[in-house]
Amino acid sequence: MIDKNDVSAVxxxxxxxxxxxxxxxxxxxxxxxxxxxxRLQGACNGCPMAAMTLANGxxxxxxxxxxxxxxxxPAE
Length: 76
Description:
Blueprint: H1 4-20, E1 23-30, E2 35-42, H2 50-65, E3 71-74
Parallel strand pairs: 2-3
Antiparallel strand pairs: 1-2
Helix pairs in contact: 1-2
């Protein structure tokens, strides 16, 4: 099982880059399958590049730093 605190700590490392562009990210959940659910906020919420930010930024970094993370999905 992935520790939510570990995920939160990595998101804290990513957050300044998102905030430079007027956005932010909030951890919503981490499930038993390694799926991390996040909510993009600010300028990131609804941005046409949000899917790319999740896949190429947030997901890539989380997978690199936390074994067991399989996917990052946006909160509905």
